[in-house]
Design a protein that fits this description.
This protein is of the alpha+beta class. The protein is built from six helices and four strands, in the order ααααββααββ. A hairpin with a 4-residue loop joins strand 1 and strand 2. Helix 1 packs antiparallel against helix 3 and helix 1 packs parallel to helix 4. The protein is globular and about 50 Å long.
Length: 151
């Protein structure tokens, strides 16, 4: 998967393509998500392992604007609403969709954008670890030998 940029180095088109691909993945799995025999817990695991990975592949290397973050969160909530379904409101005696707060309280998992930020921190730590290794150069006459050592 490459990155699609326009003349302004904007990745908006690529983000829309990723959301579209994740939506296609979700649509292909509709049979599982609509099934009454599969638990919501398993449906959420399926979402996390397939749809989230399709959407967030290498996103931790991008600079995300607030518009990008909002688009990603809107898509995530749309998928959660389809998985969790409507709830019955006893006070009004009718069915309604879940609010954003109710979704995140039910799921008890960080949002996709929070996961992207955590992955960024993890990659930063990995890069810092790689840069902290010393290179020792040994000279043998005109030949140079290099050995990596850890602190």
């Amino acid at each position: 998967m490459g990155v699609i940029l326009n003349e302004d180095n904007n990745h908006k088109i690529d983000l829309q393509e990723r959301i579209k691909n994740a939506d296609k993945t979700f649509f292909m799995l509709q049979k599982f998500f609509r099934s009454k025999n599969i638990s919501k817990k398993l449906k959420l695991r399926l979402k996390n392992t397939t749809i989230d990975k399709t959407l967030t592949y290498t996103l931790e290397t991008w600079i995300l604007t607030m518009r990008d973050i909002n688009q990603i969160n809107i898509f995530e909530r749309k998928v959660y609403r389809r998985i969790l379904g409507p709830v019955y409101d006893n006070k009004k005696e009718n069915w309604r969709i879940l609010t954003n707060k109710e979704i995140y309280a039910t799921v008890k998992k960080p949002t996709i954008t929070e996961t992207i930020r955590l992955n960024r921190v993890r990659w930063f730590g990995h890069g810092r670890k790689q840069n902290s290794q010393k290179s020792i150069i040994y000279e043998f006459g005109n030949n140079k030998a290099e050995r990596q050592t850890k602190k």
